[in-house]
Amino acid sequence: MKIKVLFLFTILTGIAIVLFSVSYNQTWENEPNNNPLQATILGSLGDYLCGFQDFDTSLWGDDYYVFSASAGQTVNVVGDANFPTDIGLIITNMSDFYLVGPIDSRGAGLDEYINGFVVPSNGDYCVVAYEANKMKGSGYTYSLQVTISELPTSVNDIWEVYE
Question: How many helices and strands in the chain, by DSSP H and E?
């Protein structure tokens, strides 16, 4: 009986290690995320490990990430590109209308930034990351850091946002 339990434990532990390893090596994003309707939801804001996948059918490897915000909040995005990735950034509304960008001024392996985008109205918006040289594959990885300010709390704060 002890041998059967030990064997079963060994098998289950091995499966758990394999499952953990596979999920650990995957990027954070959910593919396909090539448009606002497929966008990966940004839950708690922070750092997201991502990549431009071989199997992505979009021309630029577009990766969409949706977040909710209220009028007056400020959004900052850092796209941390790993060489040879040449990341570009865009912010769109849910109709895929560009509100900021495309931002691609720094080159392969260098970070791109969107600083101080003031959300015009309550709703959902997308951060779009794309590979500016249209390259895809396991070597084209990046991370996103997305921060959204707290809502203004007073009339004076609201006026400061729009000045």
Answer: 2, 9
Look at residue 16 and tell me if it is in a domain: no
Who's near 4: CB < 8 A, 6+ residues apart? none
pTM, rounded to two decimals: 0.73
- Confidence band, pLDDT 50/70/90 cuts, at residue 33: confident
Angle at 122 between CA 157 and CA 97, to 5 degrees: 115
Strands 123-131 and 87-93: antiparallel
Band of pLDDT at residue 4, cut at 50, 70 and 90: very low
How crowded is the C-beta side of 47, counted as CA atoms within 13 Å? 5
Q: Cα(99)–Cα(128) distance, rounded to whole angstroms?
A: 11
Question: Residue 122 sits in which domain range?
Answer: 28-151+158-162
12-26, 50-64, 136-150, range with the lowest pLDDT = 12-26
Query: Does a structural domain hold residue 21?
Result: no
List the CATH number of the domain containing 42.
2.60.120.380
Domain count, the chain: 1
Cβ atoms of residues 71 and 138 within 8 Å: no
Q: Diameter of the chain by CA atoms?
A: 76
